[in-house]
Write a structure and sequence with these properties.
The chain is an alpha/beta fold. It has 13 helices and 19 strands. The strands form 5 sheets. A 6-stranded parallel β-sheet has the order 2-1-3-4-5-6, sandwiched between helices.
Amino acid sequence: MPVSRQYWVNAFYWASDEHSLSPFMLMKFYIYTFGCQMSEHDSEYMGAVLLEKGYSSTEEESAADIILVNTCCVREKVEHKIFTKLGRLAKLKRKNRELIIGVTGCYAQLAKEEIKRRMPQVDFVLGTQGIRRLPEVIDRLRSLRQGWDAMPKTDKQLEGFPCGFRRRSPVQAMVTIMEGCNNFCAYCIIPFARGRERSRAAEEILREIKEAAAEGYKEVLLLGQNVNSYCDPSNNSISFADLLIKIHQIKGIERIRFVTSHPKDFSYRLVEVIRDYPKICNHIHLPVQSGSTRILKLMNRKYSRAEYMEKIAWLKREVPEIGISTDIIVGFPEETEDDFQQTMKLMEEVEFDGIYSFKYSPRPLTRAYQYPDTVPKEIKGRRLMELQGLQKRIQLTKNQSLVGRVVEILVDSVSKKDPYALCGRTSSNRIVNFKGGPELMGKFLRVKIVRAGPNSLFGERV
Ligand code: 5AD
Ligand code: SF4
């Protein structure tokens, strides 16, 4: 799921009038984000916290007084990108000594000392649960000219959203329902960076979604490292499936999506809920990681290949239109050619609609860090290419079978390739590009698919 990506929160924020007398009004911030949707959502939140205090956002890095780098730590490659970015910012700081640079998020949580050692130009480091304290940290820095490492234990989710909360997308509202992870998959650093599982109270979640609906949002994306283990802390009988049904009743919300589901906790009841409640999108992200039961065991995934395939069979039987995406790691320690071929065979059997695939990257603190990294780099690279080649062929065939069909999409963005084109998504999460103006943003449209590539579809309005 996570792709290294930068985006500018600034484009979506504006300062509210109520802070017009604030002494911070002239201070502008700029946020870089690395990582998954959870990380993007944290950036939205940080932007909101700063706006609430009267800071304003800028779209130009060079105009910023405060630059935040919100980080990810899931693979080593991202770490290199973070330091490259910080190196560039350090140069900027040499020209503008007043510039404040802060590092936040998962990598900040785990590598405070490393960041301080390698990048003395960084003014502060803030852990994953300290976002709400961002203005306090910046105030302190400005008044004392003194850096501060803040790793507070308070959970931002329990504190409610700041009043200036603005979202990244005008169509889809991301809403965290739980955070952290108890699974400790052998390769994964997330439980160390995000801590143990904590669910938000259902009442809080429903209130936030009702507010989003009142603001005109049509789609919600529920976020959590393992949404299937959601359990309302104030009423243990509310499970994830129950929560979905409650959200389904909210007027104005037309589509409900969620990430990420762990196959071991993915229940038949959830399949029934997806089948029976039409606003719940026909899409599931169900990371398999490997098609070999032996490797799954070494990964501590707690399901076998056969169990995974059984859940896929439930989904395909009960929800024939379902779009299924997954995450796959190649080159995990001890992965043989035979294990890899089992992954390839599983991909052919499932015919995923999308995959995020990665070369195994040893991460400190994890169990697998102690295993010898036995698969040579070149073999990891070759396996990744083979796997991606296969997936491209599968996607192309599946997409081409849609040519001539009329599908319903929710328009949610401007096309990256063509400023005169828009993108919408089908319920099954397929992206369709079509010609149209900005007035169509947030509308449901019917489009006929006229052309298909491996990664996208092209349609015409009908
Ligand atoms: N190496 C490679 N990929 C990893 N992921 C998590 N940790 C690692 C790692 N150490 C991938 C998994 C997970 C996704 C979020 O990132 O596929 O599902
Ligand atoms: Fe990482 Fe596994 Fe938890 Fe996902 S379920 S966040 S892969 S430990």
